[in-house]
């Protein structure tokens, strides 16, 4: 393949990479926050709320991401929810990721010894203080690796967004391949972009893990 084709389509590929990063970062962080809220509600709310949360988690985890994306983008207008492709991509990532994040957080809550929580309640600590000073610092140690792993999975799920014309990296690569009738080289470059995303995510996860486990290393 001629180098001038990459020069010609380079700006489009860079823009697509930027859209991919935007959808992944905004959707993943939104899903992370929503997943934490879901895990807290499941742990401290009343039974009817837990039933609703359980149903939501099971439905989202039990259906493919592409189907959820189609329903949100094409079915949204029927209920007054009209979204641009990028908005639909970000919102679908939030919806898709939140149940998985909530289960990771729930496992972290369960990893904290109940005796410590009960002791904190006995001395009169508020639930918010218990969460902030006792539960969160300890649960970060076991949940950091699975959180990093799921962030990596979500980087590759961004490729599905091209089916609703989100101008992300795969969409721009497919456009380049269709216009130039070359397929191997563009998709090799595409693989390189995703590999860089995975390496960067893994590096950040490693830094976070090193920070939350530094007390263990000192011990």
Account of the 3D structure:
The chain is an all-alpha fold and 219 residues long. The chain has one domain: MetI-like (MetI-like fold). The protein is built from nine helices and no strands. It has helices at residues 3-44, 47-61, 65-75, 85-111, 114-122, 127-157, 169-180, 184-212, 214-218. Helix 1 packs antiparallel against helix 2, helix 3 (65-75) packs across helix 4 and helix 6 (127-157) packs antiparallel against helix 8. The mean pLDDT is 89. The chain crosses the membrane at residues 12-39, 78-97, 187-205. Belongs to the binding-protein-dependent transport system permease family. HisMQ subfamily.
> In DSSP terms, counting alpha (H) and pi (I) runs of 4 or more, how many helices?
9
What is the overall shape?
flat
- Give me the CATH superfamily: MetI-like
The chain-level mean pLDDT equals 89
Membrane topology: Multi-pass membrane protein
GO cellular component, one term: ATP-binding cassette (ABC) transporter complex
Transmembrane segments: 12-39, 78-97, 187-205
Protein name: Amino acid ABC transporter permease
């Amino acid at each position: 393949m001629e180098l001038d084709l990459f020069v010609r389509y380079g700006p489009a590929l860079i823009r697509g990479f930027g859209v991919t990063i935007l959808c992944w970062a905004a959707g993943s962080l939104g899903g992370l926050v929503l997943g934490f809220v879901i895990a807290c509600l499941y742990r401290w709310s009343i039974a009817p709320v837990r039933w609703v949360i359980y149903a939501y988690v099971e439905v989202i985890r039990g259906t493919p991401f592409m189907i959820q994306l189609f329903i949100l983008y094409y079915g949204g207008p029927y209920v007054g929810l009209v979204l641009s492709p990028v908005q639909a991509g970000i919102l679908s990532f939030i919806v898709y990721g939140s149940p998985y994040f909530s289960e990771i957080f729930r496992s972290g809550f369960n990893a904290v010894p109940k005796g410590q929580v009960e002791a904190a309640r006995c001395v009169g600590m508020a639930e918010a203080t218990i969460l902030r000073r006792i539960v969160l610092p300890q649960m970060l140690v076991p949940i950091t690796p699975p959180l990093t792993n799921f962030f990596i999975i979500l980087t590759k799920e961004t490729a599905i967004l091209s089916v609703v014309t989100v101008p992300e990296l795969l969409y721009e690569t497919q456009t380049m391949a269709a216009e130039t009738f070359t397929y191997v080289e563009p998709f090799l470059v595409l693989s390189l972009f995703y590999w860089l995303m995975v390496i960067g995510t893994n590096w950040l996860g490693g830094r976070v893990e090193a920070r939350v486990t530094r007390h263990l290393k000192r011990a």
